[in-house]
Amino acid sequence: MNGNQSTRLGGAGKLWSGHSLPLANCSKLRSDDIDVVRTHMSSMVCPHKLDIDGDKPPIAFCHNYAKLRSLSFSATDYGNPYGKVTIAIPPLLDFFVVQIVLAGEARISQGEDSYVVRAGELNVIGSEKPFIQVFESGFRNFSMKVPRAKLDELLIEELGLAPGDLRFSHRPMSLDGGANSFAQMSLAICNDIDQNYRGFCHPRTIGTAEDMLQRLLLASVPHNHSKLYDVAARPPAPFHVRRVEDYIHARADQPISLSDLIAVSGVCGRTLHSAFRRFRDTTPMNYLKAHRLERARAALSKGLDGSTSVTAVALDSGFTHMGRFAADYFARYGEPPSVTLRRSR
Fold this sequence. Notes:
- It is a single chain.
- The protein is of the alpha+beta class.
- It has 2 domains: 7-229, Sandwich (Jelly Rolls); 239-343, Homeodomain-like (Arc Repressor Mutant, subunit A).
- Helices cover 40% and strands 21% of the residues.
- It contains 12 helices and 14 strands.
- A 7-stranded antiparallel sheet has the order 3-5-6-13-8-11-14, sandwiched between helices. A 5-stranded antiparallel sheet has the order 4-7-12-9-10.
- β5 (61-67) and β6 (72-77) form a beta hairpin.
- α3 packs antiparallel against α4 (206-220) and α9 (284-301) crosses α10 (310-316).
- The chain is globular, with a radius of gyration of 23 Å.
């Protein structure tokens, strides 16, 4: 698909034009100065490098922008008639960027991994590793910035998972199935804001709109918790299960015994064990171990300062037997903890 075609987002004739930008009435910046553009986009996304090669082509940069509460939307066109735009972005630790290409294509490189995302495709960017995106003239995209903490909260609510471990597939996907639903809702919200209808920004609807977009994202784009997330929701767990989970989350780095968990729950051991089996498919102590492993993996994946050690992370996560920790970690994640740490540096 080239810049003269449209990016189809669904049936019934609905589409986003590939030769114009969404949010046309929400202009944030128009500029022909690459230095101004670099400063602006660094402030809007994160500090990054931006270069244009090919005999210093002129630009007619356009950035349209809108925001709900914590989710923000951008539509960009660098307006370069020729040459290549290269954007080098550091690790994105606090948020994900969901990108829908409207026209043209971009090559994204991350270490030895490289792929092309084309018009009519969606991909999610967010990693502990830096990456580079390169595109030529005619490239236009729409993107949504999603705080990682918001998705963590949703996964805690739905699955009882510890925060910090969410990893999306970076591979481009066509706007079919759930991805189409996600794109259509994004389009509806942006059109609502652009035309100043303000329905999705109403105090009684804005939170629900954000929640639905985030749930659609988790349902549409493959991630490391997809298998659990795609299972039909169970009835709410009883209070004694949630009380034990809260206790584990708050004190995972401290010694915890089964008798401690029974005492916290306020029920007998058999009742607690049965409730965890029914509502969490595990035992209280296995839940504790799984939470500690998730906590350790999150810390190892963020060990960017060079001073983090496997032993320190294991101890901080509540493990006291290093050999058992290494074996349990390998069984769960398919690699030694040292490999996870090394990859993050």
